Amino acid sequence: KYAMYAAKEGEQDGSFNMVTKALAALEAREGNLAIARGLYEKAVNRGDADAPKVLHQWAMWEQRVGNVEETRQLLQKAVDLDPTDTAILRALGELEMREGNFAKARSSFAEAVSLRPKDSRLWLAWGRSEHAAGDEARAEELFKSAASEEGSSDAHGLQSAQASRHMRRTRCEALCEAAQLAVCDGRPEEAKESLERGLELDPSYSHGWRLLADLSESLGGPEEMRAVYARATKSAPRSSRTNLFHWWGRAERKLGRFDDARRYFKIATERDSTYMSAWLSWGLLEKDQGNTDEACALFAKAANYAVADHIKAPFLFISWAHLEEQSRSNPDNARKIYQKGLTVCPKSPEIIHGLGLLEERQGRFERAVELYERGSTLIPTFGAIFQSWGLLEARRRRYKEAAEIFEIGTAKDPNNPVLWTSWALVEGRQRRNVGRARELFERAVAADRNFSGAWHAWGALENEVQNFDDARKYYTRAAECDPNGAAPHHSLGVLEGRRGDLPAARAHFKTAIEKCSFHAISYQAWALLEERMGSGPTEARRIFELGTQQCEGGPGHIWQAWALFEDRNGDSDRAKSIFEAGVARSPNNQTLHQTFAIFEAERGNTTHARDLFERGVRICPRDSASVYTAWAQFEAADGKLERARELFNLGLLLNPSHIPGWKAWASIEEAAGDFQRARDLRLTAKGLIAGSQADLARSTNELPTVLESINRLDDVDIQP
Hints:
The chain is mainly alpha-helical.
């Protein structure tokens, strides 16, 4: 209100554009872009001298919401009005760099530098563009130009004291950028010298201290890293120390020194109770250590600070809600936490996305779709929400809708390799359209040639269609793109094992475990390969034991594989002990509960089997169709046909496209002599295989009723 009054008054004294820009920025921050655009247009149409700056600010808001072409047009119009404004030329160059138009970016930066050759910020931005373009040598030259004293004396538009501070920071950033290139080029000592020089110029640059600590650790071990952080937390300005204590804590956590990590996280949060990143790191540490109550208490405390001070910290609320849902099995509390986050961040696509995922996991698909659709309008370039939405539609066998969503998402965020990869996986794995999947993988790696996930997923597709040479090529490329990643080596191990090359498979599994000592799936695959190749149970058992020890108890799947291995080798007592250890350490693993229940049922332990089935369906109702199917088959075998029918019905209402459920039910009816019902059920399964959507859409509308039935399971008499 006051800004509007000031703008009206400013029409008389020439300050109209200044106040209107402020008002437009306020509206844009509140998400009222239509109003903001009207104000910016009004200011530009006045024809005042600062119209280029108005256009520049307007362009930055359009860029934030993903309107690339509108941003480009506004910046170009600003350049046409004032071709000497280097800030606008730099913004145009940075836009073209992000869009991969490096020649256009180079042209804009060169023009800006020709106008202000001593503005270090221009040289720094140009260097970053050349680095993104893959010309590391040219980038390093430009960073050195930015860091030179001769190129640092001209800070356009700043007062002398402020210009001096900006000059030191720019030179420091340039030296740190050059240092990172030197590390990649195998010149670590030169990199260390560059970082030291940069921090002498600006000791408040906390990111530079972090780079120096990481490099010192790689050169001299953890004690060298600690020495850097100890020096930094004493010599850096107080305003920078909170970040440093947080990063020191993260470094100690990575080294397994959890008490030291807690101490530094505590110092960081005591120094600044509104520093949400430190609270988040501390809470996640406690979560990973199994201290769920302590983690939730930390998240709750941080959330109270966030609400009180109106701090937008979406990932804090997302992490807390996920913990409540997954570790405490309390989706209602998780839903309340997401809603609390939305009071602080009402237009956060991240929180809306997290809430959508919760609803999806709870089987409330239509509600999830509503949330995904709502979130997709807030920041169109937030590709994760299109990914989840498209994958949900694919799971519902609505492939046409899934493709449309992926198409919209990739049009809005064309440089997002994850979106292209997810779309490719849907086409390749679910629709079996391998040719189309390959086209989409091409788009994924074109968006980011170094995105390991795309190469890895492409290799998996080729492996599935037995194109082993290409699979090996793409897995190897994935490993090159992610030198510290275990997954590509695991997949290479599986591939070589499938081809019968045990020594090569062992080598890859060992490499995967060296990269990540708690990579449980590699221990599991290696152990099972040793069994299959006839190495004897002793070696496989040794690997299973090592895996569960190294993985802090191990996820459910490794315990399940180990238990089944022992059962196959004639030791059912040991198998049961391993199952019990697994469900104790992985209480939210649905498949483990189902497998253990079947194991118990086969041995006549019916009460325990029913208890395990019931716990299994409660873990994740959305994905419980297979548990219901197994449970129903058990009840039918125990002579409880009506109970079996109830369970089949519950599972198939939750997931009507679960073809194994329809087939299993048909077999049960056939065995009971109801051949007509068996025939109808098989026809339903056949219709689903053919891609029928009608039953799916109809059944999805009944999900709330199904979930109520699940919640009433305690009231159902399931005793013998």
